[in-house]
Amino acid sequence: MDTALRRCHRSGGARVAQQPNQLSFQKIQVHAFICLLGLLLARVIEREARKLERREGLSALLDILADIRLAMVLEPSGKKVGRPRASWQLEIADKETAEFFKALVPDKQPFVYTDGSR
After folding, report:
1. Residue ranges per domain, the chain?
2. pLDDT value at 97 more than 50
3. Residues forming a β-bridge with 88
4. What does pTM read for this prediction?
5. Do 61 and 46 form a contact (C-beta atoms < 8 A)?
6. CB 104: neighbour CB atoms within 10 A?
7. In this predicted model, what pLDDT tens digit does every residue of 72-95 receive, in sequence order?
8. Closest residue by Cα to residue 84 from 97, 71, 75
9. What DSSP character marks residue 73?
């Protein structure tokens, strides 16, 4: 472990993995990449919302989209042996949220709209 991390671990200031391989530089790079990718996706959502003349902030937009639920439904294949058929079911309770989501997401699989509008 790096000396600064060892000092931090000894002082109890933060939880650090016991084994040096668990806190490798590559894992830190991957974590940073995923965080930046998430930020980029959030900003794209915000930009597209502005094009749709929505005035909520990023936090409010993400809260609106958090109410949407997507489930994979498995059905028997119809044979005794075989993989089950999978389909996607999208659940949106609010009509305004559904319109916002449909404007953001392209109309193609795996999304199946529950209200039958598409």
Report:
1. 1-55, 67-118
2. yes
3. 72
4. 0.58
5. yes
6. 14
7. 888 887 777 778 887 778 888 788
8. 75
9. E
Q: Alpha-carbon distance 95 to 99, whole Å?
A: 6
Q: Residue 28: what are its φ and ψ, rounded to 5°? A: -65, -40
Cα(100)–Cα(61) distance, integer angstroms:
10
Cα-Cα-Cα-Cα torsion 107, 117, 84, 110, nearest 10 degrees, comes to 10
The answer to whether the beta carbons of residues 65 and 45 sit under 8 Å apart is: yes
Alpha carbon 11 to chain centroid, angstroms: 35
Between CA 55 and CA 46 the distance in angstroms is 9
Rounded distance, CA 59 to CA 64, Å? 9
Could you give the CA distance from residue 118 to residue 107 in angstroms, rounded to a whole number? 8
Tokens read off for 12: 């109890």
Could you tell me if 17 and 23 are in contact, meaning their C-beta atoms sit under 8 angstroms apart? yes
